[in-house]
Structure formats: structure tokens, C-alpha cells
Amino acid sequence: MTRTSLLALIGFLSIAPHPVLSAEYNFEKWEKTIAAFEDSDKANPPPKGAILFVGSSTIVKWKTLAQDFPDQKVINRGFGGNQICDSTQFAERMIFPYEPKMIFLRAGGNDINSGKTPGQVFEDYKDFVARVRSKLPGVDIVYIGLCPSVARWKNAEKEKALNGMIEEFARQNSGLKYVDTWAITLGADGRPRPDLFVADRLHLNAEGYKLLAEKVRPFLPE
User: Fold this and answer.
1) CB 95 within 8 A of CB 72
2) What is the pLDDT of residues 169-206, one digit of tens each?
3) What is the Cα–Cα distance from 114 to 127, expressed in whole angstroms?
4) What CATH class is the domain 47-217?
């Protein structure tokens, strides 16, 4: 897809206005999860200045995170079902206390699957950046782009449009980076490879995470 056609697609998919978070969105459902992070931190205080990974189940299920990046101190604070607005909402409790030197965010797929347009999710991403910048102005924020899955192949074009928006935004703003992972799950036929997913055909298996780690590794600080 050319840049011109991508921008045209973005325009088409983003016509709905960005909604103000309504009372219908239930942040309270995550209270036990966030409280569990806090309890864990009290029992075993994580290091300051680590690399913080936040986002949805792709982060949660990245069990080899520390082994994949053995030269880095990493903290995993993903939770399944996470939308970008959730990480923004709970930044005071699950981002700022760690004083990270870099933040990796992987989320957006649940947002789109819930019915949000790419444009709406992009606005949520910008809200996340603004929230982090309010307390951590010098910390790099790295967005790990979405890659298509078998189970949500129907969302592929919308996910790709979101990736394009965030990639362009990162180019235009210092301290923001974008990791292109789109092709790692695709086979020769241009569709997701079932052999890279667990039984639910949505989440990556061990081989899939190896490919993801290869894409992320160059973005880590030396």
C-alpha cells in the first residue's frame, strides 16, 4: 500500500469523532489487577530506571521478556483486555512509580475490536503520550505496532491504518518511536500463519514471540 492510499484509507476509517470517555466505560474492572501490581511492588520493589512494557495480552503473555533482553532491566505491566486508555488512566499507579528510562506500549487491537475506529484509537494513543509527557518529559515512548492474527483477520485493515497513523506521528515528534511488526505473522500468501499462534489463533506462541523480540531488540538502549 502506498503512502497516499494509506492516508486515504485513514481518512475513510477515521470519520467518527473521538469520543470523550463516557461513564459507560468501566475502569473499575481493572482495580484488582492494578492493586495486585501495587502489592507485588511492595513485596518486591522493582528497580528504578528500567524498561517498562505496558499494554494488552501480547505484553502479559510475553513470559520470556527478561530472557529475550538479558542486558536490560525490564518490568512487565500489561494486562489482558487492556485498551490504550486504560494505561493512560492508571499511569499514576503503574507507570510513574517506576521512573522508567523507556516505555514500550503494545495495545490498540482490543480497542478496534470493541468498535472504535482507527482515528479514535489514535487519539487515545496521543492522550497516552501527553499523559506520560506530563510527568516523564524526557522518556522515549516506543509503540510496538499491531500485527494481524488469524482470529481477528477481519480487523486487519483497520489495524494497519492505526499503525500508519502512529508511525507518521512518531516521525514528526522527537522521543517517539514505532516498531513495525506487521509482516512478522504473515505467510507467503499474505495472510497470518497459524503456526505462529496458540490454539485461540489470537495470541502468539513461542516462535511468534521470537520474531517479535527480534523486531523490538534494535530499539532498546545500549
Assistant:
1) no
2) 999 999 999 999 999 999 999 999 999 999 999 999 99
3) 18
4) alpha beta
